[in-house]
Amino acid sequence: MPAAPRPVLRWLPPALRRPEAAPLAVCAAGLAGAGYLYVTDPHEPGHLLPGCPFRFVTGLLCPACGGTRMVYDLMHGHFGQAWLDNRMLLLAAPFALALLGRWALEGLRGRRWRPRLRPRTQALILLLAVAWTVARNLR
Questions:
Q1: pTM
Q2: 128 in helix, strand or coil?
Q3: Nearest one of 17, 9, 19, 8 to 106, comparing CA atoms
Q4: How far is the C-alpha of 47 from the C-alpha of 33, rounded, in Å?
């Protein structure tokens, strides 16, 4: 039996239904955020940068805590400090950027794309995130 067609978001304007709209919007938002972050030091308090809700509620570091500082340090060439901010996120960043690039490239080619991760891969990613969370909160 063929799969049911995916529902189209009919309330969106036609230009936003195009395959390239979402990846380009995400890239534009990312560039805008990176531009703001470049001139805003997250190591200093008093900026309009969001805090971690997990840390706010529990007082513990989540797997992504330190990611904003890490990106700031990478943009300013402080690779050692970026490593100290969040090692796991730094190691995962090239894979995430490759997925974003593939999504954008497929969108520009007029095709919809989303990564398909096997359940085993999903479980491994979840296990690594939990292990990293536990390890960094034990120090």
A1: 0.82
A2: helix
A3: 19
A4: 13
First to last CA, the chain: 53
* H-run or E-run covering 127: helix 119-138
pLDDT in tens, 3-28: 655 666 677 777 778 888 889 999 99
Three-state DSSP state, 2: coil
For residue 125, the one-letter residue type is I
Output DSSP code: residue 139: -
Nearby residues of 103 by Cβ (< 8 Å), 6 or more positions away:
22, 23, 26, 113, 114, 115
Tokens describing residue 127: 């296990």
Length of the chain: 139
From CA 74, how far away is CA 90, in angstroms rounded? 9
